[in-house]
Design brief:
The chain is an alpha/beta fold. Helix content is 41%, strand content 17%. The chain contains 20 helices and 14 strands. Strands 3-9-8-7-6-4-5 form a seven-stranded mixed sheet, sandwiched between helices.
Length: 484
């Protein structure tokens, strides 16, 4: 039985049938026995069957006031049908792969960057066994967790030392807790961003034990604003890349090099949170509008640079902290580090991803997000043409056509960076776009798409070439005779 049947509704009817409808509900134990007779006891625990049966009965009871009279046999059949559909969903892994048809390459809700094959292989290699996370293989003694990837980060960015934590917000929290706890950290008012999930930079600063000192205005901050703000209570200067919004027009901001010079003159660490994780100018140049990158920030004199591992870097979720060795050593020694450190899976995937970044050709070829960024419109049109032929042959498809689209690098990462793209637009007989989108999200093959002009829009820039066959199968299943 397909999980496409999960939304089968109990037929509506006049309120007069409520009493009869309630009397026709079979006891839970009989529903469970019927499920066991159908073989479900070999697939899911009895407790799960009982829970699904109770949920189905509760939904039936809630709608009984509007349920038309049905004989007990039909009620039992419908309940068993609904329970079985729910049990099929229970059999799936709680988190599984989805096809991203939104056109947002770094989609926060879909886990941001997919890993390169080499990173997946490296992760799988350590997952089923042991790995020397904190063991010096040369001496046989205790090693440092950061040493697994530190050498690669030093080579790629020109920093002196590096450490990795579980995300970039944690990186900022740890750095401030180490370098500026109980002291003021100076930030331009125009950089006090919200970083997704309603987490705001001022709140992260406060959680790190530092005291926020805003300078300048929303649209203009000058070096003199920072200079006047520094006193004996100042602990650090922070520059944060406003990656999820943009101020244009009458603006002024202080470059990281100027802030680094000021920090050296006043004996203050300068922290640069670049957010999205481009490593060097060569990579940044491949983006539609460029991005601040780690190597240039280090070269400009930033003492500490922070960025994400799961955005433009194309690796697992983590936060990278690079910079001066003396400061990195202090950060690594902070007791918070134990709470924020990453595990062997993250280190394995990150290490393989950083190895790819040593060669720009491999970056464009092997990292899924960078590969998607470089796909030509001609290639997307050719794929769209093949998909349209297959989709048009499916019963129930009323209209399918190739349309221009706009894809984006990332929602919450670098969302303003738009890229021309191609989409397949689908309309289905007797199924509205919202319902079709819901069926695709909840089907056996999960597809997340978007709706435009009262039609389902599937952007091919974020659907990988090897997913086309599964994508067509998902559409077929969602509009099949039993899908509703």
């Amino acid at each position: 039985m397909s999980d496409r049947q999960t939304t089968s509704a109990i037929p509506a009817a006049p309120a007069a049938g409520a009493g009869e409808a309630l009397r026709s509900i079979p006891p839970i134990h009989r529903l469970v026995e019927s499920l066991e007779a159908e073989g479900w006891s070999r697939r899911v625990p009895r407790a799960v069957m009982v829970e699904a049966a109770r949920d189905a009965v509760e939904r039936f009871r809630a709608g009984a006031a509007a349920a038309r009279p049905l004989d007990a046999r039909l009620v039992e059949e419908r309940l068993l049908h609904e329970i079985a559909a729910q049990l099929e969903i229970e059999e799936r892994p709680p988190l599984r792969r989805a096809i991203n048809a939104t056109g947002i390459l770094l989609h926060t809700g879909l886990g941001r960057a997919p890993l390169a094959e080499a990173a997946v292989d490296a992760l799988a290699d350590v997952a089923g066994g042991y790995a020397p996370v904190e063991l010096d293989l040369g001496t046989g003694g205790r090693g440092k967790r950061r040493s697994v990837v530190e050498r690669l980060l030093v080579r790629l960015t020109g920093c002196e030392a590096a450490v990795v934590v579980n995300n970039n917000a944690a990186a900022l929290l740890l750095v401030l807790a180490t370098l500026s706890r109980g002291r003021r950290v100076i930030v331009s008012r125009g950089e006090l961003i919200e970083i997704g999930g309603s987490f705001r930079l001022p709140e992260v600063i406060e959680a790190g034990g530092a005291i926020l000192h805003e300078v300048g205005t929303t649209n203009k901050t000058r070096l003199s604003d920072y200079e006047r703000a520094i006193d004996e209570t100042t602990g650090a200067i922070l520059k944060a890349h406003a990656s999820n919004y943009r101020i244009e027009g009458f603006t002024a901001a202080v470059e990281i090099g100027e802030l680094a010079a000021l920090g050296r003159d006043r004996g203050l660490p300068v922290i640069h949170d670049i957010g999205s994780g481009a490593l060097n100018a060569e990579e940044s140049a491949l983006l539609p509008a460029g991005e601040p990158e780690a190597r240039s920030s280090i070269q400009a004199g930033a003492d500490i640079v922070l960025f994400s591992g799961d955005k433009l870097l194309g690796g697992p979720q983590c936060g990278l902290i690079i910079g001066r060795r003396d400061l990195i050593d202090r950060i690594d020694a902070n007791p918070l580090m134990r709470a924020l450190r990453v595990d062997k899976y993250t280190l394995a995937a990150l290490g393989a991803t950083l190895q790819i970044h040593q060669d720009i050709v491999r970056v464009q070829r092997d990292l899924p997000v960078w590969r998607a960024l470089g796909v030509s419109l001609d290639h997307l049109r050719a794929r769209a043409g093949r998909l349209v032929e297959q989709l048009a042959a499916i019963d129930g498809v009323a209209d399918v056509q190739i349309v221009p689209s706009t894809a984006y690098v990332g929602g919450g990462s670098v969302p303003a960076q738009a890229i021309e793209s191609i989409a397949v637009q689908i309309a289905v007989e007797e199924v509205n776009p919202g319902e079709l989108a819901r069926r695709l999200r909840t089907g056996a093959i999960t597809v997340v798409a978007r709706i435009r002009d009262d039609a389902l829009l599937c952007d091919l820039r974020s659907i990988f070439d090897d997913e086309d066959e599964r994508f067509v199968e998902a559409i077929r299943a969602a509009i099949g005779p039993h899908a509703s």
